[in-house]
Design brief:
- With 458 residues, the chain is an alpha/beta fold.
- The chain folds into 2 domains: 187 residues, NAD(P)-binding Rossmann-like Domain (Rossmann fold), CATH 3.40.50; 214 residues, 3-Layer(bba) Sandwich (FAD/NAD(P)-binding domain).
- It is built from 15 helices and 20 strands.
- The strands form 6 sheets. A 6-stranded parallel β-sheet has the order 6-14-7-8-10-9. Strands 3-2-1-4-20 form a 5-stranded parallel β-sheet, with helices on both faces. A 3-stranded antiparallel β-sheet has the order 11-12-13, with no helix packed on it.
- Strand 11 and strand 12 form a beta hairpin.
- The longest helix is centred in the last third of the chain and has 16 residues.
- The protein is globular and about 70 Å long.
- The two termini are 42 Å apart.
- 46% of the residues are buried.
- The mean pLDDT is 96.
- The structure holds NADP nicotinamide-adenine-dinucleotide phosphate.
Length: 458
């Protein structure tokens, strides 16, 4: 018999009932940690879209299929663990945070960083200027970006930022389209890229080559694109003493490898490639130029200031203009605020300490909404585990009474006429996408509109 004094999770009769909001990597790693640390747990896994996996499905580039393999592990967790998937449910709209709190012992937010940092310069929202989120979502078939238009009749594009997302954007723009045909890239993007006239992509870093945030594997790939030259001037590769000190730091091995890659490109003889990737360092956007659409970018020339490991870009009085017809801003993601949850505006995360949301006992965060948009998919495993450990340490302070969990959540959603999707529904969508892809030699052909995803279940 369960009793109200028994701690939740201590017996099968009195399970710990947790709502996890977001079914991307951090959400699934939270599920994994919960099932590992608590023998009697039941999890309601809530997702805004009708389908699971978040960034694994909609963020990882289609030509990097190995990075999507974590979905296999997530699938096993969903099918074998004490998890009930609630797809197509928006927290704050279909169900409130308070309702989740009332029906579960605790709530873990793993809703990622769905929006972008802003540059804050004039012209940022001119037609032809896009966020990386929009472009990545578009080629990955994310329903929110399905109908975005990118004017790929332009010959010159600029990518602002020097992280792995910028690398993905530049690579998808410049890769021969035939190399994408057998990936799970969305059909609408493949068609548009097949007709693309983009020949030159300029990648802009506000700091120097030693501070670029690419992982060297992703950077190296950009020098191996068929028919595309990687062009970098030798001058910015001659580094000052602070940069050399950074490269000598054994904890900064990636930066030394990146600089070696840039240097090898600078030494390459010019070829007859028809496409080119140009690298710019120590340059920050001052304005996007154009009246009715983007026609160029005005850049400040920067210098570095500060101690090794903490050098920042400082604008000099010098500027230059770069004509271009497309701009992709890839300067980092930001979490979206949710009414009722304290938000750290500076970091773009839910305000929290070690995953405990500030001033809200019983509410937790893991993944990018907790620490900001950094690291690779696997980084979220330790991050989610740390949050779940905090939750387990807090068990004596969580409500002791039994909570109805998924059953009550389902009842609320049914009463409101919310059309939810279940994990078996996802398996049907998955089968349908794989079948459609098979005919085209692709691993899957994604359904890219909400209506199509839901219609596949009718
Ligand atoms: P990121 O790695 O943080 O890179 C952001 C870039 O934007 C940096 O070069 C940064 O420069 C620059 N930036 C920021 N604010 C700027 C401003 N106001 N003006 C000009 N430049 C500015 O972010 P990300 O590329 O979005 O990637 C997010 C995370 O996902 C990273 O951890 C990344 O490794 C990961 N990811 C991994 C893969 C993969 O493993 N293949 C693929 C995609 C993404 P500063 O350095 O000067 O701040």
């Amino acid at each position: 018999m369960s009793s109200a004094t028994e701690a939740p999770g201590s017996s099968a009769e009195h399970p710990l009932r947790i709502a996890v909001v977001g079914s991307g990597p951090a959400g699934f790693y939270a599920v994994e940690a919960l099932t590992r640390l608590c023998p009697h747990v039941e999890i309601s896994l809530i997702e805004r879209l009708p389908v699971p996996f978040g960034l694994v499905r909609y963020g990882v580039a289609p030509d990097h299929p190995k990075l999507k393999q974590t979905a296999v592990v997530f699938d096993q967790l969903a099918q074998s663990g004490p998890v009930r998937f609630f797809g197509h449910v928006t927290v704050g709209q279909d169900v409130s945070v308070d309702e989740l709190r009332d029906t579960h012992h605790a709530v873990i937010f793993t809703c990622g960083a769905e929006s972008d940092r802003a540059l804050g310069v004039p012209g940022e929202s001119l037609p032809g200027s896009h966020t990386a989120t929009e472009f990545v979502g578009w080629y990955n078939g994310h329903p929110d970006y399905r109908d975005h238009h990118f004017d790929l009749s332009q010959e010159v594009a600029v990518v602002i930022g020097q992280g792995n997302v910028a690398a993905d954007v530049a690579r998808i723009l410049l890769k021969p389209v035939d190399a994408l045909r057998q990936t799970d890239i969305a059909a609408h993007a493949l068609d548009a890229l097949a007709a693309s006239r983009v020949r030159e992509v300029h990648v802009i870093g506000r700091r120097g080559p030693a501070q670029a945030k690419f992982t060297h594997k992703e950077l190296r790939e950009l020098g191996e694109l068929p028919g595309c030259a990687a062009r970098v001037d030798a001058a910015p590769l001659s580094l000052g003493s602070a940069c050399e000190a950074e490269l000598a730091d054994k904890h900064n091995e990636g930066a030394a490898r990146n600089v070696a890659i840039f240097r090898s490109w600078a030494a390459r003889p010019a070829g007859d490639e028809h496409r080119a990737l140009h690298w710019h360092f120590l340059a920050s956007p001052a304005a996007l130029l154009g009246d009715t659409r983007v026609t160029g970018l005005r850049l400040n020339r920067n210098r570095l200031e500060g101690a090794p490991g903490a050098q920042t870009a400082v604008a000099t009085a010098s500027q230059f203009d770069l004509p271009c017809g497309l701009v992709f801003r890839s300067i980092g993601y930001r979490g979206r605020a949710l009414p009722g949850i304290p938000f750290d505006n500076g970091r773009g995360t839910f305000a929290n300490t070690d995953g405990r949301i500030t001033g809200n006992p019983g509410l937790y965060a893991a993944g990018w909404i907790k620490r900001g948009p950094s690291g690779i998919i696997g980084t979220n495993r330790a991050d989610a585990l740390a949050t779940v450990e905090a939750l387990m340490a807090d068990l004596p302070t969580l409500p002791a009474e039994p909570k109805p969990g998924a059953a009550a959540l389902q009842a609320l959603l049914t009463q409101r006429g919310v059309r939810t999707t279940s994990y078996p529904d996802w398996l049907r969508i998955d089968a349908c996408e794989r079948q459609q892809g098979e005919a085209l030699g692709k691993p899957r052909e994604k359904l890219t509109r909400l209506t199509d995803l839901l219609a596949a279940l009718d």
